[in-house]
Write a structure and sequence with these properties.
The protein has about 290 residues and is α/β, with parallel strands linked by helices. The chain is built from ten helices and nine strands. The strands form two sheets. It has a seven-stranded parallel beta sheet, sandwiched between helices. The protein has a two-stranded parallel sheet with strand order 7-8. Pfam families: adh_short.
């Protein structure tokens, strides 16, 4: 898709962080944007600010973990602006797991992480792709993964990393199946970076359902800078969400499946992992 003007984009997790910046870059490119988020107050405030700036944005409350809610979002998007041309399955949560071992994480921790980060992607695909195929116009499905898990895994975030590994696999399969259908749709996988992204994802704990809560939160860190320290990451530089959104827009324009910012460090990690697989050598902590 070369001309964005008058087309429609839907972004989940759109009220803050990378999602909000995605909404802004799409709207500035001339698109009508449906900003979807579970948090009504943040959604209304973000959408109002963009409309005041003259951008075509409408906020729609949606829960990516609920298939019915996502189906309703798809119908509402069509009612608002007609055919959907870009879907960004971007909503995600971070669990304060960096100071715990994998065997200390609870079933509720795993259930919440997977319900948003994995089933949120699956529910978005199920709700939107059939109608995008039906209208037959060129379009794009962008799934937000992470270099952590999506490419290589940090040892301090087993839930988050494994959910993002699943997102990579799901998106690769989606890409192949769209080709099998001969569709005008293209799948993309977005890896925000190349450094840890300066978002408020750790504050997503406030939206954790009561039935999946274990009471008092574990982990004192509240910012991404704190998480970097808790995880032992040596690279203290942060990437801003605005940079990620611009990378995404450019990746769509360039028809890139792998929307992955260049990084010598990350490229080395991927090469080392690939070589370990091919040589059947045991991965070592010192390789990270």
């Amino acid at each position: 898709m070369d001309d964005f003007k008058g087309k429609t984009a839907v972004v989940t997790g759109g009220a803050s962080g990378v999602g909000r910046c995605l909404c802004e870059v799409f709207a500035k490119a001339g698109m009508n944007v449906v900003m979807a988020d579970i948090e009504q107050s943040a959604l209304e405030a973000a959408a109002a600010e963009m409309r005041e700036a003259g951008l075509s944005v409408t906020g729609v409350q949606a829960d990516v973990t609920d298939p019915d809610s996502m189906a309703a979002l798809a119908l509402r998007s069509k009612e608002l602006y007609g055919n959907v041309h870009i879907l960004c399955n971007n909503a995600g949560v971070g669990i304060k797991e960096a100071q715990r071992r994998i065997w200390d994480l609870t079933p509720n921790d795993w259930s919440w992480g997977y319900s948003v980060n994995v089933m949120g992607i699956a529910n978005g695909i199920r709700a939107f792709v059939p109608m995008m195929l039906e209208h037959g116009e060129a379009g794009h499905i962008v799934n937000t993964s992470s270099g952590n898990g999506g490419l290589t895994s940090m040892p301090t975030t087993p839930i988050y990393a494994s959910t993002k590994a699943a997102v990579t696999s799901i998106t690769e399969v989606l890409n192949y199946q769209l080709q099998m259908e001969g569709a005008k749709l293209q799948a993309h996988i977005l890896f925000p970076g190349p450094h840890v992204v300066n978002t408020n994802i750790l504050n997503s704990m406030r939206n954790r359902p009561a039935e999946l809560s274990d009471g008092e939160e574990v982990g004192a860190y509240t910012s991404m800078a704190d998480l970097v320290k808790a995880s032992g990451i040596k690279d203290m530089q942060l990437t801003e969400p605005e940079e990620v959104a611009e990378d995404c827009l450019q990746g769509i324009k360039n028809k890139q499946f792998w929307i992955l910012p260049a990084s010598e460090k990350n490229d080395k990690k991927v090469r080392d992992r690939t070589e370990s697989i091919l040589s059947r050598s045991n991965p070592m902590l010192g390789d990270l």
